[in-house]
Amino acid sequence: MYKRQAIVLPVAGQWKVIASEGGHCDFAPRNELEIALLRFLLGRHERVSCERVVSGPGLLTLYRFLIEHEGLTARPDTEARMTSEDPSAVIGQRALTGDDEICVRTVDLFMSLYGSEAGNLALKVLPKGGLYIAGGVAMRLLPKLREGHFLAAFNRKG
Q1: Residue 82: band (very low, low, confident or very high) from pLDDT cuts 50, 70, 90
Q2: pTM of the model as a whole
Q3: Where does residue 146 rank: exposed (0-12), middle (13-18), buried (19+ CB within 10 A)?
Q4: What share of the chain is helix, strand, coil (3-state, %, to 5)?
Q5: Contact between residue 91 and residue 56 where contact means Cβ atoms under 8 Å apart
Q6: How does strand 5-11 pair with strand 14-20?
Q7: What is the rounded distance in angstroms from the CA atom of residue 14 to the CA atom of residue 126?
Q8: How far apart, in whole angstroms, are the C-alpha atoms of residue 108 and residue 114?
């Protein structure tokens, strides 16, 4: 799961990695939809961290939230695949092909939340050498990462 955030610093001619468990920080909603998401999650968990939504399993959480919150009907073929495959992978694949609107909206929301949290980290550490995104979800959803929701949320800071 998404938990790790790290800072990489040049020290004595080498790179020093300072790991953290930044994904355990509190989820901070930025708009009415995300406030509804927080309420949805608080109904299921005592505490809501970033990793509840910005992680592989978070994709399924966001998918279920959008269905319930907006009264949507899931596609039977998507639901059927989720019973025999990794649900988060199915959501990501269906979003990339664009053949399931709920999956597309789920991944767009995910990218916005991911970008916002990456922007929060950037504000905390001032990464003058750049900010690097790594991990399986980012790699698998790279086309969606490039579409703009991530970067718009990353830049939408005070």
Answers
A1: very high
A2: 0.93
A3: exposed
A4: 60, 10, 30
A5: no
A6: antiparallel
A7: 19
A8: 10
